[in-house]
Amino acid sequence: MKKISIYILAIGLLIGCTDNLKDATDFTSVTNPNLDEAAILGKENSATIWLTGLQRQTANVLNEAVMLAELGSDNYVNTQTFFDQFLDALEIRTDDPEIEDVQFQIARLRVMAKFGLESVGPADPAYDAATEASFNFFEGLSYLYAAMYFSALPQEEGGAVVSDIDNYASAIASFDAAIAADPQPQYHLAKARANYYLGNQAEAVAEATAAIGLDDDFLFSIEFDELNLPANTFESALYERATFDDLQPLPTLDFLDPKYSFVDPNVDPSIHIFKAEEAYLILAEAALADNNVAGARTNLTSLLTVVGTREVREVDDSIEGRPDASSAFASRPKTADVVVNGRPGLVLDRQAGDVMIPSVSGTSLVQGDVDAITAANDAALILLHRTRQEIFIAEGLRFADMGVKLVVHQNEFNQNPNISEGDPSTIAVIPSFIDAVKEDLDEITYTEGATTASTTVDLNVLLVQNKTSSQVLPFH
Amino acid sequence: MRTKFSGILTLFLAFIVQFTFAQEKTVSGTVTDDKGLPLPGVNVIIKNTANGTQTDFDGNYSITANKGAVLSFSYVGFQVIDKVVGDGDTVNAQLAPSAAELEEVVITGQGSGISRRKLSTTVDFLTADEVDKLPSNQIDQLLQSTTPSAQIRLSSGQPGTAAIIRTRGAISASSSATPVVIIDGVRVDNLNSNPQLGLATGGADVSALADIPVESIEKIEYIKGGAATTLYGADAANGVIQIITKKGTSGKARFSYEARVGVIKATDDYLWYERTGEALFKPGLSIEHKIGINGGNEKVTYNFAGSLYADDSFNLLNEQVRRNLSFGLGAQVNDKLRYQGSFSYVGFESNLDYNANTSLSRFSAFEGGGRGNLDELTDAQWQAELARSNAIGEEVSINNTVNRLTNSNKFIYDFTDNIQANATIGVDTRTQVQEENQTNAFQIATGSIAAGTADQAVLNRLIRNAFTVTGDLNFTHRGRIDNFEFVTVLGGQFFRSTDRQYQTSGSGGVDGTNDLGLFPTQTTDDFFLENANYGIYFLENIGIYDVAFLEFGARLDQNTQAGDDTDPLLLPKIGITYNISDHDFYYDSGISKVLSTVKLRANYGEATNFAQAFSEDRTFALNPFLGGPSFTFNNPGNPDLVSETVITTEYGIELGFFQDRINLSGTRYVATTEDALFTPPALPSSGQLDQIKNIGEIKNEGWEFALSADVIKTEKHALNINASYNINDNIVVSTGGAPAFNVGGFNVIGAWVEEGQSLGYLRGTSSVRQADGTFAQTANAALGDTFAPNFGSFGFNYTWNNKLNIFMTGDYQFGGKIVDLSFLLRHLRGVDDTGIPADLIGTTSPFNYVNFFTFDNDFIKIRNIGASYSFGDALGLFNDLKVGFTVTNPFNFGIDGQFDPETTGSGIGNQNGFGSGGFAYGTESAPRIYMTSLRFQF
Known about the structure:
The complex is a heterodimer.
Chain A (H helix, E strand, L loop, with lengths): L1 H17 L3 H4 L20 H27 L3 E3 L18 H27 L5 H21 L2 E3 L6 E3 H18 L3 H14 L2 H14 L4 E7 L7 H6 L8 E3 L17 E9 H14 L3 H17 L2 E4 L23 E2 L14 E4 L8 H5 L6 H14 L5 H5 L8 H4 L18 H4 L8 E2 L6 E4 L3 H7 L11
Parallel strand pairs in A: 8-11
Antiparallel strand pairs in A: 1-5, 2-3, 4-6, 7-9, 10-11
Helix pairs in contact in A: 3-4, 3-5, 4-5, 5-6, 5-7, 6-7, 7-8, 7-10, 8-10, 10-11, 10-13, 13-17
Chain B lengths: L1 H20 L2 E9 L10 E4 L5 E3 L5 E7 L3 E5 L6 E4 L8 E2 L4 H4 L2 E2 L7 E2 L7 E5 H6 L5 H5 L7 E4 L8 E4 L13 E4 L2 E2 L29 E7 L16 E6 L5 E15 L8 H7 L3 E13 L3 E12 L8 E13 L4 E15 L10 H6 L11 H17 L2 E17 L4 E20 L1 H7 L10 E25 L2 E26 L11 E24 L3 E12 L9 E11 L4 H5 L2 H4 E15 L10 E6 L2 E6 L10 E14 L4 E17 L14 E21 L3 E18 L6 E5 L3 E5 L7 E9 L5 E10 L5 E11 L3 E11 L2 E4 H8 L25 E3 L2 E14 L6 E15 L25 E2 L7 E10 L1
Parallel strand pairs in B: 1-7, 13-16, 42-46
Antiparallel strand pairs in B: 1-4, 2-3, 2-5, 5-6, 8-9, 10-15, 11-12, 13-14, 15-16, 17-18, 17-47, 18-19, 19-20, 20-21, 21-22, 22-23, 23-24, 24-25, 25-26, 26-27, 27-28, 28-29, 29-32, 30-31, 32-33, 33-34, 34-35, 35-40, 36-37, 37-38, 38-39, 40-41, 41-44, 42-43, 44-45, 45-47
Helix pairs in contact in B: 7-8
């Protein structure tokens, strides 16, 4: 009797488990909160959200590329950071994980842009020409950065390397597609920059002119999200330093530091990747190359006009040390009376109250300097490149101006059948005249308390001295 | 119902009869064991009544009983005997060891448990007595130095942190080496790493191991993987820690109380600068109260324990509080069905200091030269540093609160004498709240923001809820045909776990509040993992003439992490055990007087580890960006993803000499991880994230030796010594064509996975002087194994007259390497060039001579020294009064660099990630604890 009642109960339970209680007893179903492809493709406005993803991805590219480029240039010395261990000494290695990160982020920008063009956009009922143009622009941007920072990079997963010249050409093709769909000044300027580095003076001039023709003081920026990330890594390095990270600018650039500082808890300062200033600088340099002194003066005057309209931020930089207190490195100029390389007014005293720092473009160039240009000579070129250095500080262009190129990372050539260690793409490109002084690029001569300081190398002079090299000053 | 009612009626009638016809008298006597030694604590109950008592320390008891009453004498490990009260007033009893004691039953695997002599695998034990005398409240620290073949390394002295646990080498590059932890058959959260959204405090992360309930432990079994864990399936390849709790013993209720008071003092054995200790360390106190009630009758037994623990640590900042409640119940529901239930609650609160790899860590800053060469600072400079350090310390606010509830219910049903069913169902739920408040004052003190700033406070809060449900149903059949004995187990098991994490951050706040709603800007992040694992298993153990045992079985295992294109995994096991010394001819021969036990064993088994939930899927991410949504690619996906399988072959021998006064155990194992889960770097040109794949192969082989010897065994004195030595050789046989990849450490010197090297070996650029005096640099040079390949434990236990106990435990390791990152930083900061050739400094980056920062990680550490004395009933009022004193971590030997080779705090940042160890940096060593205890029953 007892057994029968147990059997009845068991059968009843089993029936219960297989019917109404199924959900309660199914221990094998799990909830997966992740998005799959079906959640994206074909959804209205998915292309717009994908485009925001591309803007965010460009912020990721800049976080990697700007850091390496600025450390590798003479702009900053890395007294105590671990952002990269080697680039500051221009030691470019195939095992440097930061170089892999740049390569990866550039490739990710490319595959995201292509997925937008090929899959997301066409499936979105609300897809429009402006969005398609943007996708083309970001694809072009990935080729542009590939060419600016690498002597060669693949354009496909595991593909053969494409030279910087061909990457610039691909960038131009993409920018052309963007311009055809939705002309924007930044598209023209992007194309101008590609042509500038290729040495295509006429095309560069045409595109720079077209850019400022659409908007003579335009500013195209990549924003950073302090709240949800990515925040601006370079801002962290320059300003939110805590007690560990200490990037120090060359004393000649002290008045431009920190270009990025705290904005608010939501937004981090933007990096201005295309701005009208670059168009005027390209036009001025082309004019000098053409011996057109008046043209150069006109464009530099326009440059100063635009710079004069740009934001200057009042910054409490009192926690900045020269160098940081926890650093064991030598002291650096930190009072306003210090004259660097014979030029006064370049160093700010950060303990004497707030300092005024240009957040877009700043320069020590004044109208008098422009007016004093009387010949398209090396002095004018040095002045122009000093101005380029100042205007583009913390934007990653100086490194490209130096003609230095990074290498394909070992994780690529160890897996990519088309690339082998020892190939030209795996060997750093450093112009010989820079290689000879690379240890001294950040070096200064300064004694604590002195009122004069000097940099060991004036790279602008060096660049102009070697202007005929194919690696630098592309118009010469 | 009728049975139950009649039972109650019978009891009632018996009571009435007894009440009516009682002719009471006082009966007394002595209870001894089979050797005639008195047995204290024996339960003496009058059958069919609730009356009972216990023997005192000398084995004596007295009880009021009637003539004709039946006295039942019971004691754990001995057979129960009944004696009738006759005319005399004295009833003595001699108890014989129970068969269970002779054949120690191991709970391991599924089914009804199986005697140890039938097993071809080894299991390490910790008994209730051993647990009770250890001062620690953490499972990892209980096992450290007390299990012969586990390598348990305390990664930090910060409260709530736990050890990296390994046994037979590193078997997986994708997951932590932490064993599965099972309490009374129920899996519990064992996350021994920072949660996915865990707060970035630097490196020493709080661990779920720190709050595994350790109250009322009857026994801990440590099963090391291989064939022993085949039937557990799922992620049991790292081994299983089984905790079996007390369910009470029948007899009169026994109340116990224990108080522990300790002094906690930081060790400065490993400080580079004495001043670091001066700035940060301060001895603290620990106080603990424990109470327990244990008792029951033949039908129902119960055990309750509660404890309250608090300490204020070894420094100026840390504090921790633990609250424990546990309850165990055993019930003979009817003559067929037994129930065993347990419930435990752990509440744990602690706070952390910033440590290891964060610029906010004062310890790392001091030891890493971030505040200059402390030895060279003037007194005035040092006073300024102290003031700064104290100002920061007062503002550090990182708090961790855990509440954990664990429940197990086990039903044992005896269909017949030969067939038994076991059903277990239980849950573990653990809620962890971590909170970090970087106030304006804190940021000003560290120099991160300018003085006077009042609107940049940041509050981070993580809430993690881990829930696991376990169910198991199995049937065991025992049979015998002539000289063959069969134990057959058939069962099914499942568990599913859900891990939900929310992190909320508020920024732009003012000081003085922990209310996130008061912060002007807030963000939330979310992380979710859910998986289900299930399998059916079969086991057959065949006894041949009761001397040899053949065991074979298999598990068919499936889980929801497997890719769409995969099938369930079939995991087989087979083993053989041959107890040569159990042959009559052997026993009769003279040799057994010298070599009393000879047991040979061999086995083969497969066990698995699964990948993180959802890692098989191709997914997209939707990230908030500048107030709107943004898409990007996420996990690339792998429809072929399956668990990695560890295939172990093991051979062993057990030898006992002189009636097993000396026991030697030796085991040889070869364990190959096939389809090893590696996450190789994607081609950078793909622009896609790295995807976990079954592409690797890892091989561990080694030896395990253990010695236990009763050096002295007389009526009054007993001295046991034990020692173990283990060798592990680990190699990555294949990376499946993937290039070497980094699994830990830093850019310049990291832990790597590369073919032909040990898993997570140290790799960096070395500089070695050549014959011509110059230095040659070698990029990607192999600098050593992070896991010390040689390790073991040792100890002794001495008792005098069953009253005085003195014990010691310790462990050691050698043969591995570790990077002293504090030294690297001191050197980079120009304050320490110790041991680095002067003609090398300045010629190249220090990152090109990292071999000079790499040291042996050898050590010998004494973990516990303790003494206790039992006064028995000598003090009258209380029974079994015991006082004890222990010192934890008293001695450290073998210091190569000036750092602790054990504190690899910056090891496991990723959820359940691989912990390579190998990097000592910026976190305090486990402190020295001097503890006294007082315990009694009444």
